[in-house]
């Protein structure tokens, strides 16, 4: 499944040009995205027309996971490292246009300049936010409380039957 939205014009495969609420009848509800994706994979392996299926994240939450404390050492180290990568890239580009044979000077100059600029920008950015609640490093994710799988009405009953067999386990038996 690559699309996040489905619309009334499903025959024209592709994402809607504007945000469009999903359509279809609920055929399953799952606690994790992996479970919902597994259900759609099951439908696909049973020759169900999965282009009529949509996975919808419901009860969205923005979750910020704290990774650790920020310190000058971490901030400057990260700034130097990112600056070094950018400087290396610029140095390599300059080296491509260097007319002297086998000179590593442009690469070394780009690397050194990148480290210096990375340190300066990291230091200025960290100093400007210090004392205003940015003493932590974190990663933000958008997660859903549950994932509903929808299918177009013409095939919703067939999809429910297939997913019921999946829920019963291997072979679709309950013994």
From TrEMBL:
Membrane-crossing segments per the record? 75-97, 103-127
Annotated General stress protein 17M-like domain residues: 27-114
**Pfam name, any one:** YflT
Q: Where is this region: Disordered?
A: 1-23
Origin: domain of life: Bacteria
InterPro entries reported for this sequence: GSP17M-like_dom
Coiled-coil stretches noted in the UniProt entry, renumbered to this chain: none
Q: Recite the UniProt keywords alphabetically.
A: Membrane, Transmembrane, Transmembrane helix
Protein's UniProt name: General stress protein 17M-like domain-containing protein
Species in which this protein is naturally found:
Actinokineospora iranica
Lineage from the top down?
A: Bacteria, Bacillati, Actinomycetota, Actinomycetes, Pseudonocardiales
């Amino acid at each position: 499944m690559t699309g996040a939205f489905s619309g009334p014009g499903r025959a024209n495969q592709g994402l809607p040009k504007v945000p469009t609420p999903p359509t279809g009848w609920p055929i399953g509800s799952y606690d994790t995205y992996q479970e919902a994706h597994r259900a759609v994979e099951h439908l696909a392996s049973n020759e169900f027309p999965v282009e009529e299926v949509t996975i919808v994240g419901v009860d969205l939450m923005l979750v910020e996971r704290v990774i650790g404390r920020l310190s000058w050492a971490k901030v400057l180290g990260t700034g130097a490292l990112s600056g070094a990568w950018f400087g290396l890239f610029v140095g390599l580009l300059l080296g491509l246009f260097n007319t002297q044979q086998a000179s590593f000077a442009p690469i070394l100059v780009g690397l050194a300049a990148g480290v210096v600029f990375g340190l300066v920008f990291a230091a200025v950015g960290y100093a400007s936010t210090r004392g205003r609640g940015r003493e932590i490093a974190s990663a933000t994710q958008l997660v859903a409380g549950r994932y509903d799988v929808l299918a177009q009405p013409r095939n919703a009953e067939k999809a429910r039957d297939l997913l019921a067999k999946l829920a019963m386990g291997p072979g679709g038996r309950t013994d």
